[in-house]
Design goal:
The chain has 154 residues and is α+β, with helices and mostly antiparallel strands. It has helices at 2-23, 59-66, 128-140, and strands at residues 35-36, 40-42, 51-57, 76-85, 90-102, 112-117. Strands 1, 2, 3, 4, 5 and 6 form a 6-stranded antiparallel sheet that branches. Strand 4 and strand 5 form a beta hairpin. The structure holds heme C.
């Protein structure tokens, strides 16, 4: 009986950890040591990524890019975005960080956790379904919802 109670509490803890993680996701530590993309400049002011950004891919995500955008469970990709300063464009202050993590529980968003953060690393509260996934589904439904490709990591 005692072991059943323990098992149930472990299950409950796992479940509540999973749900609260989805509600307030955490930015992975040390992502700046992951594989970094080329510097990318977006001058279209209507884009969420207007500015300059760099994409970081962990080991699993690197394999996913090499496999032609087929990502294994747990893959993590982070984008750091900076404002544009001057002409020619140089990197201004950092203004946004976003994360995608392959997580099969996230069925409403293509099996990826989508999360936006402020520069302080705190969740920015952008809605993952309507804002993030809406755009990624439109542009990359055939590429596992990841818009960039291995060409971005020369
Ligand atoms: C208006 C469209 C749009 C919206 C909204 C959007 N993204 Fe993206 N996202 C893009 C584009 C375009 C790229 C590719 C950038 C590049 O190639 O350098 C991208 C790239 C990414 C990447 C790098 C992996 C990839 O797909 O290339 C992550 C991580 C990411 N976005 C997360 C998010 C999150 C989290 C949100 C919501 C907070 C979000 N995005 C909202 C268009 C969008």
């Amino acid at each position: 009986m005692k072991s059943v109670v323990i098992m149930l509490s472990v299950l409950f803890l796992c479940f509540s950890a999973a749900t609260s993680e989805a509600a307030s996701p955490v930015l992975p530590k040390g992502y700046t040591a992951w594989k970094k993309s080329e510097r990318k400049v977006v001058t279209d002011k209507s884009s969420l990524f207007y500015g300059i950004h760099y994409i970081y891919a962990d080991k699993k995500a690197q394999r996913g890019y090499l496999a032609g955008n087929k990502f294994p469970e747990g893959s993590r990709i982070v984008v750091e975005s900076f404002t544009i300063k001057g002409n020619p464009a140089v990197d201004g202050p950092k203004n946004m960080i976003v994360l995608m993590r392959k997580d099969k529980r996230q069925t409403a968003t293509g099996g990826w956790l989508f999360a936006g953060f402020g520069v302080d690393g705190k969740p920015s509260g952008l809605d993952p379904v309507t804002i993030c996934f809406g755009c990624h589904q439109k542009d990359a439904a055939q590429r596992d919802f990841v818009i960039s490709t291995k060409k971005d990591f020369k």
